[in-house]
Amino acid sequence: MTDPAPLDAAAARARVAEFVAAHDPRTTDPAAFLGARFDAGLAWVHFPEGAGGLGAPRALQPTIDAEFARLGAAPVQREGLVIGLGMAAPTILAFGTPAQRYRYLRPLYTGEEVWCQLFSEPGAGSDLAALGTRAVRDGDSWILNGQKVWTSLAHRARWAILIARTDPDLPKHRGISYFICDMHSPGVEVRPLRQLTGEAEFNEVYLTDVRIADSQRLGEPGEGWRVAQTTLMNERVSIAGHAEPREGGVIALVTELWRTRPELRTPGLHDTLLRLWVDAEAARLTKERLRQQLAAGQPGPEGSAAKLSFARINQEVAGLELDLLGGEGLTYDDWSFRRPAGIPFAERVPGFHYLRTKGNSIEGGTSEILRTIIAERVLGLPAEPRTDKDTAWKDLPR
Amino acid sequence: MTDPAPLDAAAARARVAEFVAAHDPRTTDPAAFLGARFDAGLAWVHFPEGAGGLGAPRALQPTIDAEFARLGAAPVQREGLVIGLGMAAPTILAFGTPAQRYRYLRPLYTGEEVWCQLFSEPGAGSDLAALGTRAVRDGDSWILNGQKVWTSLAHRARWAILIARTDPDLPKHRGISYFICDMHSPGVEVRPLRQLTGEAEFNEVYLTDVRIADSQRLGEPGEGWRVAQTTLMNERVSIAGHAEPREGGVIALVTELWRTRPELRTPGLHDTLLRLWVDAEAARLTKERLRQQLAAGQPGPEGSAAKLSFARINQEVAGLELDLLGGEGLTYDDWSFRRPAGIPFAERVPGFHYLRTKGNSIEGGTSEILRTIIAERVLGLPAEPRTDKDTAWKDLPR
Amino acid sequence: MSADPVPADLDLLYDDVEEGLRASVRSLLADRCPWSAVLERVETDAPTDVALWKELAAMGVAGLPVPERLGGAGATLRETAVAAEELGRAVAPVPFLGSAVLATTALLAAGGEAADGALARLASGEVSAALAVPLATAPDTPFPQTVRYAPGAPGSTSSPDSPADGRAASGTLTGEVGGVADASTAGILVVPAVGADGPGLYLVEADSSVRLPVTSLDLTRPLATVRFDGAAARPVATGPAAADALHTALVSGAAVLASEQLGVAEWALTTTVDYLKTRYQFGRPVGSFQAVKHRLADLWVAVSQARAVARNAASAAVHGGPEAALDAALAQAFVSDTAVLAAEEAVQLHGGIGFTWEHPTHLYLKRAKADALALGSADRHRMTIARLADLPPAQWEA
Amino acid sequence: MSADPVPADLDLLYDDVEEGLRASVRSLLADRCPWSAVLERVETDAPTDVALWKELAAMGVAGLPVPERLGGAGATLRETAVAAEELGRAVAPVPFLGSAVLATTALLAAGGEAADGALARLASGEVSAALAVPLATAPDTPFPQTVRYAPGAPGSTSSPDSPADGRAASGTLTGEVGGVADASTAGILVVPAVGADGPGLYLVEADSSVRLPVTSLDLTRPLATVRFDGAAARPVATGPAAADALHTALVSGAAVLASEQLGVAEWALTTTVDYLKTRYQFGRPVGSFQAVKHRLADLWVAVSQARAVARNAASAAVHGGPEAALDAALAQAFVSDTAVLAAEEAVQLHGGIGFTWEHPTHLYLKRAKADALALGSADRHRMTIARLADLPPAQWEA
């Protein structure tokens, strides 16, 4: 550390002000601005120096982000960076070699290199550890074959974080390794995967004799499951990022409709609306409480609950929106096979809201898996009898 | 059979008319009337002759009951006879010796002898087969020790149907035998069991060196679990007995309140009321459809669903009744420890409705067990991995 | 004070003739209408399968409740409901609801020579028809006012065609109706319109109207905006008789739609159960996990109840009158929710695969949600129940 | 148009002082108020534990929000809410809600010499107080009209006692209030009454009223009908100030009650989880069954949210104003349902034992349901939200 005194909020704000004074956000190229911010250690303040941080307490980051916003800097989190910033970066920090950190973190942060995640497979969804993509050692590299699915951004990504099976003779959790995969490698084929909305938001990725250098392995061979846990935990933690105003979420779809279209109101739907308003407000306050806990250095287990609640509320709000609209809800905009056009969710047609939110309880951990996690890890309820933990992966029923 | 032609509905009605002509229900002693009806084979028409029936199709019984009612006979099913008529009788018919049928069925039917059921134990509720009451052979009889619970009518019963463990070295389902227990035997102690309503509707029954003659065993030793299945199946089947008018059930508690107390109405509770009305009507029609299926000789699996639905609806109706009443719902009638006074359910205070219906999803098979039964037996979903099926009972964790 | 305390004992079963009809329809649909064909077809410009409709008509499905003297099957709405169940189970893209239910029951209720002529054409499958009301119209909606009737021969602004059946029209229609189901492929439109003398129901040859297809949420049931620009029209009913005929059609439609929804729900339940018996996660079939089993058990209970409720509504619709309106409202209030729940559970419990375009579940989800809005939402039907079952809304100051 | 888009960032955590208070209260209650003692006491004629109340008062719990100059703790409703949480967790039969919340906040809002005198007596534990309104009174109820105030000294029909504090009363009260919580053991009554000049809030020595205990659904919170028959009364507020003070008390009561309900819910969840870890059925802990786990996970999510919502209401109540009323309504709407659900799930998942008198669960079930009705049902609070969050009811013709 260059600074002998530990960084506090006031000092952090001062550093940001100093930085912005030197790099006017209105005139500096956005990637250059972010690159300089990374170099100044103001990207992830809790990361070490040289890796975008200052080794300072994580709780300072919201203060820093808020100060950058106040001084006119564009937000770091942008469309296309969610996997890189939220999942790849903390994993590379935790398990990467110095060379890996140096190579990957800066262009990831500036947005010059987009990342995707190659975890799920058609036969390994909730039971991710059952995955079957094979990685076979070949000298200084690994040869990969398999199929991944539910991959957002694969068609735009330069890099992927990837898990593959390196030892099928071990029980499933123990024979997995974790790699960084170059999406431009020969043998990587990305095919759009069309959802029930009509759009192809995700991809299937076919890997055919894809070669990955052993230097692109994260963590030890066979330790991939543990590395992946870090990735997934960060996925869920990122949910409680920022404070949200009342009616700041999906609930606004129906409260605005209710206020502006009195002719749609019915007594029964009023009760449904009020119940959802209460639920949405309860979920919002819970997320706010979690944010305050994190800021106070007392992280609670409520993070895993937030996704569960918002999935349900989003789905119920979208269902109510159609119920309110009646005949207007019977229409759709466009069923043609296409990539998402980047239109904000709230501006899509109600039918899209209804269909798209169905994925909220599936993507990023199903609601069923989250309930099991809460029951076992938070409440300490006993696990189910398991037959798949000590059996060699290759002998598992499937 | 004395009658060479198979009995049809018209002939059955004629027999009833003939019987009633010979035994005027207004002047005949009720027990004598029922005894004669038993002797005439009009008790359970599908039972064999001499056992209260005529060996005729079971579907005729509703016709016969309706004709008796039309001609002024009191109903057979009365308070206190529910276990004898609904559970003991069909089990004795299915597994009893001729001597057992002769001894027990007639006084059971006339109501001269009340029956109770000694199945559940403190450690064996949903997992009834885990029961620990021991029966040890001693010459021509068995010596029983153990504790039973949730026994209604035990304090008034002359006889009990009872299951006990006769071989703890076998897996739990295989070491059970089924007995008829004289409730007046030495060593049978009945203690009232007080419920959350304040009343003692049930009992605990302590068995200390109770001697039961081997001639009072039903079915072979070790076959008790199979015999008990007959008992329990009849418990659930009896639910769909008779046609019920719209709003004939517990829903009337709130529909009447809604109609007669307009000052209690609120918009939100209106929606709740209407949803419950719909659910109650759906459950009623489903029961009616089951009744029609049974009458047409096409029994469906919907019987197991009826108890599940009514438990939920009863509980929600009772909750809504309190919500409607507001301040009036904050009171109760009497918390003193006492036996039920036989007041009809609808005439009890709303707080009693709320508390008593909580038992509907526990007694006679919990809602959880019923869901598992539906999932496995109706939908054919695979059983959970079981560790308790092939282990000797004495070695099971508990 | 209670609503009709002893409803008629309606037949809730399926008789042999109905089971025969079901088997024929199901067999044809299995051959001609697998989901893969449906999915392929709905992305074309001709989502409705007109050829399949002619084959169904050859089996009598196009005119089930039409008297034999008009070339119909001479059956009732009970048989019509059985066909709807099978068509729902296959999400078949045929104009059954618009033509064989809504238009047909409107014409049957209106009666008279003109209606008979049209019914004969529909029953034969020569043409299909549509009832020119928005699909979301609830039975208790006021008579539509968006189309005006003027007596006298078609003027210069109307289509040059005279009615194809050779008989002169008595006047013309002008106006627009949005969200009409099955209009684009219809040959005949049955149009509620108002003239100087009040409401009337009119026959219009469809090609004398302008039909603008709209993109429908339910890919398998196309909607169109229908515009009349002085179209030649022939009255089939006027005054209260027209309002009654329209009301009868909407009540009958709501009743039969419940059976279609039942078919959708049955498909969703059965397909999900089958999938979960074979999908392995964590070394076990997913269907062996208790939480999944209990949800499917609850869904099975709901579907069983939906069957009784839908059957009841179809039987009541045969008799007509206020009881039919109440039973149809009950059916819509209950079965709409059940079908949507079943389809939503199917998506969720299929996991990722159920969220894709290439799996049939989304066709059922869209049909289920669109059906729930069709002919009035569950919420609207609960308000109808409030009126017909004497459960009045609360008086409440805003 | 949306309701207050950016609410104040209220502190939703517990600070160290609050955790200290919690620990002290919990420790005292663990010693002095185990459930077995509660159960025994509530069957006596003195269900309220006056001695325990004095011990709590010695810890400051009787006057948490009372200024130090009056002998109170000089804390806020946030600390009061923490105490409520612990008292709810123990279903402690003490007059906290009636005295330390409702009466105290009414007097604090009224202010003035008479109020201060009474507050000093309450904070010291010398006497407890009750607010003479029916416990079910919602904050937005019109000012009560059942008690009349007349100026002048007590007449011949009044109690011969003059106020114990030696100061002359200014008039008398006549009338009756039903369902008053904590009245029987109160020394002071705070009574809303109307006189010729409009509403007023009056102090009455409790023994100058007639208090008739009624049997309460919640055994641990006794209710009484209170009759005034010319009782000597001293005004603490009149006119709009009286109405405001009563409204503030009811809003504060609703906010703090949510924390009591949170305590009830936490007890129910924790106790059930603990039981299911040790209760074996089918050779496994019941808590290892997935359906049970998922229900408990959902309940944990709800309880986590209830904590945030209750904390928010308590913090908002410190600030007062319309936001406090909305946040209290939100808390009641959410936490009432959560506490009832938690208690109901506790009964169900305990199985038979949870349905007995000898297990504590019923004490919590009764408290939870009574609390849900207290200070307005969830339904009433949703209507308050409709008003305060600009979500007006539908206009609908009956």
From TrEMBL, chains A, B:
Cofactor(s) needed for function: FAD
Species of origin: Murinocardiopsis flavida
Family: Belongs to the acyl-CoA dehydrogenase family.
This protein's UniProt keywords: FAD, Flavoprotein, Oxidoreductase
Keyword Cytoplasm in record: no
Superkingdom: Bacteria
GO cellular component: plasma membrane
Domain Acyl-CoA oxidase/dehydrogenase middle: 116-210
InterPro entries from the UniProt entry: Acyl-CoA_Oxase/DH_mid-dom, Acyl-CoA_Oxase/DH_mid-dom_sf, AcylCo_DH-like_C, AcylCo_DH/oxidase_C, AcylCoA_DH/ox_N, AcylCoA_DH/ox_N_sf, AcylCoA_DH/oxidase_NM_dom_sf, Mycobact_Acyl-CoA_DH
Gene3D superfamilies (UniProt xref): Acyl-CoA dehydrogenase/oxidase, N-terminal domain, Butyryl-CoA Dehydrogenase, subunit A, domain 2, Butyryl-CoA Dehydrogenase, subunit A, domain 3
GO terms assigned for molecular function: flavin adenine dinucleotide binding; oxidoreductase activity, acting on the CH-CH group of donors
Pfam family, one: Acyl-CoA_dh_1
Name of the featured protein: Alkylation response protein AidB-like acyl-CoA dehydrogenase
Domain Acyl-CoA dehydrogenase/oxidase N-terminal, residue spans: 12-112
Acyl-CoA dehydrogenase/oxidase C-terminal domain residues: 222-379
Transmembrane region(s): none
UniProtKB/TrEMBL annotation, chains C, D:
Protein's name according to its UniProt entry: Alkylation response protein AidB-like acyl-CoA dehydrogenase
Organism: Murinocardiopsis flavida
Cofactor: FAD
Superkingdom per UniProt: Bacteria
Ranges of residues in domain Acyl-CoA dehydrogenase/oxidase N-terminal: 18-126
PANTHER family noted in UniProt: ACYL-COA DEHYDROGENASE, ACYL-COA DEHYDROGENASE FADE28
Domain Acyl-CoA dehydrogenase/oxidase C-terminal: 248-387
GO molecular function: acyl-CoA dehydrogenase activity; flavin adenine dinucleotide binding
Positions of the UniProt region annotated as Disordered: 143-173
Keywords: FAD, Flavoprotein, Oxidoreductase
Family indicated by similarity: Belongs to the acyl-CoA dehydrogenase family.
